[in-house]
Amino acid sequence: xxxxxxxxxxxxxxxxxxxxxxxxxxxxxxxxxxxxxxxxxxxxxxxxxxxxxxxxxxxxxxx
Length: 63
What we know:
Blueprint: H1 28-43
């Protein structure tokens, strides 16, 4: 099994999605997809160049 050095980590893009108490036309998936696409664009890279990612939707928080 291949191992990776966990000290070689880079955050190369970030994106802030639309935020509101209620977004009736959005799902947690659609907002997450928007965030991923925005972060890729911010980084100037393609999805194929990503080695891994961590996504937390926060669904259910505060409800």
